[in-house]
Amino acid sequence: MSLNSTPTSDRVHIGIFGRRNAGKSSLINALTNQQLAIVSDIKGTTTDPVYKTMELLPLGPVVFIDTPGIDDEGELGEQRVKASYRVLAKTDIALLVEEDRELSEEDKALLQRIKEKNIPYIIVYNKCEKYPDLVPTGENEIAVSAAKGINITELRELIAKQHDSAGEKVRLVADIIKPGDIVGLVVPIDKAAPKGRLILPQQMAIRDILDAGAVSVVMRESELEQTLAQLGRKPDIVITDSQAFGMVSKTVPCDIPLTSFSILMARYKGILKQAVSGVRGLDRLHDGDRVLISEGCTHHRQCGDIGTVKLPAWIKEYTKKKLQFEFSSGTQFPEDLRGYSLIVHCGGCMLNEREVRYRLACAEEQGVPMTNYGILIAYVHGILKRSVEPFEDIARLLD
Prior knowledge:
Blueprint: E1 12-18, H1 24-32, E2 50-56, E3 60-66, H2 74-86, E4 93-98, H3 105-116, E5 121-125, E6 141-143, H4 152-164, E7 182-186, H5 200-211, E8 215-219, H6 224-230, E9 237-240, H7 245-251, E10 258-260, H8 261-268, H9 272-278, E11 290-295, H10 306-319, E12 324-329, E13 342-345, H11 353-365, E14 370-372, H12 373-380, H13 384-387, H14 392-395
Parallel strand pairs: 1-3, 1-4, 4-5, 5-6, 7-8, 7-9, 9-10, 11-12, 11-13, 13-14
Antiparallel strand pairs: 2-3
């Protein structure tokens, strides 16, 4: 991914829902003016959620999610319906596509779930040429024809309006620095580092620092001490990869604010307060307890992997307990979490904010404390208070 492209996790996720043959795939094609989705008169053409990244004017970068019909039948159809419902966890705006004058029972059940999750939604009455007298009355309802291109521009504008009502998103780092500040970025280059590029949170931080009119100084942990000595003045803040927290905290003077990319991501995704509170669950672990370590992306596990090797080692060293560790990655986040005593999640850079919040909500509903990589690593190294001091509202929680 280049610094000029918008990561999928930062795109607005638009879920397209409805019964089979309601015209969901046709609607995506009409909205984008491209043949992105396969269209057929045969019911059940879309058998799995299909993701398409696009630019949708006047909204901007989006991800369309074309889902299977919510009225699918049989044992396999039931699994497809469940897959459609799971998409709600990452849906920022839901389009409920209906080809009749009134919502079906399946549509009503899905709409109820959408409302319960507080997802902005639009009811789209497709194939409106069949009902020329149909006049939707709700402010988030519209009649269109994907096949004939009727009211497609108006639908795009209505989607943008739903997104605008969500409010301004927090910045990754720009709101805690000033123009002209020097920001030190500690970026280890080891076997786990992607060859020829930086990981997403590092790229995002550099771009946000540039947008703020500040200066980023990027270094490996092995050059940290030398770089600090050569800068001429102290950096205004240092941001490190969480794996290097222990060494970096000893090298960076205590009067220089210090945090990590993972902690910044927790704040960016809106879960920092809960994740800081959740790390206390580490002190309540007993022998035999199960700990889930979950990552939002999938990657090839290597020797010294942070999720499967380093985190379990730090946790065992800190707790002195005999624990059971289990792992999940990508979209595989367990629905039943009650058997776990603690969940440690990655920064979630590959997940959109709604899905990260959904996973946290699942943990809270089932009474399982959840934290993230950077917060836990800072905690076991005894520097959590220092690592959240740049965020005064969070730092006060630890007083």
